[in-house]
Amino acid sequence: MEVLIRETSSGVAQAAADIMCEHLSPGKVLGLATGSTPLETYRELIRRYEAGEISFSGMKAFCLDEYIGLPGDHDQSYRYVIRNEFTSHVDFNDADVHSPNGMSDRPWEAADEYENAIVDAGGIDLQLLGVGRNGHIGFNEPATSLASTTRVEILHQQTVRDNARFFDSEDEVPKYAITQGLGTILRSRQALLIATGAGKAQAVHDLVEGPVSAACPASVLQLHPNAVVIVDESAASQLNEVEYYRHMEAMRPEWKGLDGLPKR
Fold this sequence. Notes:
Distance between the termini: 20 Å
Number of domains: 1
CATH class: Alpha Beta
Strand order of the largest sheet: 1-10-9-6-2-3-5
Radius of gyration: 17 Å
Strand content: 15-25%
Oligomer: single chain
CATH topology: Rossmann fold
Order of helices and strands: EHEHEEHEHEEHEHEHEH
Largest sheet: 7 strands, parallel
Shape: globular
Mean pLDDT: 96
Helix content: 25-40%
């Protein structure tokens, strides 16, 4: 696991965009997270696209998760959010931006169909992730099987409370979601997790330096062959090995990219 520490959330977004840009070419598949943390990264990618530096033409995208019971045009459905915040501002073909069907009356079947669609697309080349205060990634809550695939998940009470800020009241937050599983995420060719703010510090410590445990679903990234975690100073505040992570980056060989892979 590569751990990169930046001074500010803007620095996190810049580094995340740098890594994502290494994976942009026709035929590649991106996994996209929603929530508040990735927004700066998406704005930076939009800026680079508008400057003529990058293109998403010929690529596919799969959203990480979706609420059950919110129609696709609801302003808090992730199908809507990813378009409103990112994909409609760049040159993605909208038909190639996929989300789980949260309005299916058989959501368990919709979850299986979504898992199969990812496989049929050739798998995800780069999966962007955030992390919840309780260590969830996607909507994989504590006690999730580390081998789980896309499925229906009951949202943790903490997740509902945290997401209430996007709704008029906590009662309006959906209590169920379809999410890519931890096993699905582990199959991605690269996982890129970003976290900012002191509120994520404990989760960052647990996922990087704690045991691999269903108590912190994000800790499964320790098993990923190519995972990068980018955090700001506040989110890094509970890490024990900060100086070593800085040393690792300072000593990176010239042939090795920010993503931990040989430079292309």
